[in-house]
Amino acid sequence: MNNFITKKVHYLRFKTFNTTKSIFLFGLFFAFVISLKEVTNLSYNNFQIFYFGSTDFWDGINPYSNWYHLNKKGNPLDLFLYLPVFSILFLPFTWFPMWLGAFVWNFFTYSIFYYSIFNLPDKFNFKDKKFIFFISCLLLFATILSMQFNPLIAALFLLAFIHFEKDNPKLAILFILLSGFTKVYGIFQLSMLIFYPKFWKNVGFTILLGIFLFFLPLIKLDFSEFLPYYQSWFDTLSGHSRMQGFYSIYRPVYAIYPDINKYATILSIGVLFSLFFLGLSKMKRFQNSFALRVQFLGILMSYTILFGLSSELHTYVIAMVGYAMWYLFTKTSKLDKILLWINFFLIAIFPVDILCPVIISKFVLGKLHLSVLIFFATWLIMVYKTFFTTQKR
Question: What span is annotated as the signal peptide, if there is one (predicted)?
Answer without folding.
Answer: none
